[in-house]
């Protein structure tokens, strides 16, 4: 990706992030109709791996990690991994630590993440 486009995307994301976080802090996705419902759950009645993520973000912003874990443990536990990936890919960390980037975000790690997501998806609907 061209450097200027990448820089523009990072800038837009960093400008938009406080607005999104403010919305999630100010409004409760569990009670406010402003937030969309999961289409997969609406059709099937089953929870997808992302169900509860909006409520979990709201709980984390209000410093209620226990509630956040109850809403969506996968999202809460994956958040450091996601932030590390953003830093490595978009903020230049991958140039400084290329082996770490290859190890944590290579082909095999993608398969591990896929298996974890599928296991969580099945587990949350069975247990």
Would you kindly provide a written description of the structure presented here, covering whatever features stand out?
The protein has helices at 3-26, 39-44, 53-61, 65-90, 93-96, 98-105, 107-126. The mean pLDDT is 94. It has one domain. It is globular, with a radius of gyration of 17 Å. It is mainly α and 127 residues long.
Q: Can you give keywords for this protein?
A:
127 residues; globular; mainly alpha
Please tally the helical runs, counting DSSP H or I stretches of 4 or more residues: 7
Elements, N to C (H/E): HHHHHHH
Describe the global form: globular
From the alpha-carbon coordinates, what is the Rg to the nearest angstrom? 17 Å
Low-confidence stretches: none
The mean pLDDT is 94
Compile the SSE list and pairings.
Layout: H1 3-26, H2 39-44, H3 53-61, H4 65-90, H5 93-96, H6 98-105, H7 107-126
Helix pairs in contact: 1-3, 3-4, 6-7
Concise structural overview:
With 127 residues, this protein is mainly α.
